[in-house]
Amino acid sequence: MLCLPQRIASIVDGQEPHHVLMRLSGGATGLWPTKVTFDGEGQMFLYKGWSCFARSHAIDVGHFVVFKYDGYDEFSVKAFDETMYRRHYHSD
């Protein structure tokens, strides 16, 4: 489970989607359905589906991840390694 920053939760405030679609920014690797939950105190969490997305793109503890809300319950994701080098994938 991944807790998203408060700023992202505030963007979808009032909508509180039950699922979102994740994709790599600029990538053509498809959309990854991911379940979302809210804790009632303004925190938004990604759970079922997030670990598969992270594992498939070698995103691990210590990596820096940037989320951009694209609307329509879609997020594009950029991942950086421990040295802040942007991770590139076959689809980039």
Automatic annotation (TrEMBL):
<keyword id="KW-0238">DNA-binding</keyword>
<dbReference type="InterPro" id="IPR015300">
    <property type="entry name" value="DNA-bd_pseudobarrel_sf"/>
</dbReference>
<keyword id="KW-0804">Transcription</keyword>
<dbReference type="GO" id="GO:0005634">
    <property type="term" value="C:nucleus"/>
</dbReference>
<dbReference type="Pfam" id="PF02362">
    <property type="entry name" value="B3"/>
</dbReference>
<keyword id="KW-0539">Nucleus</keyword>
<protein>
    <recommendedName>
        <fullName>TF-B3 domain-containing protein</fullName>
    </recommendedName>
</protein>
<dbReference type="InterPro" id="IPR003340">
    <property type="entry name" value="B3_DNA-bd"/>
</dbReference>
<dbReference type="GO" id="GO:0003677">
    <property type="term" value="F:DNA binding"/>
</dbReference>
<keyword id="KW-0805">Transcription regulation</keyword>
<dbReference type="InterPro" id="IPR050655">
    <property type="entry name" value="Plant_B3_domain"/>
</dbReference>
<feature type="domain" description="TF-B3">
    <location>
        <begin position="1"/>
        <end position="83"/>
    </location>
</feature>
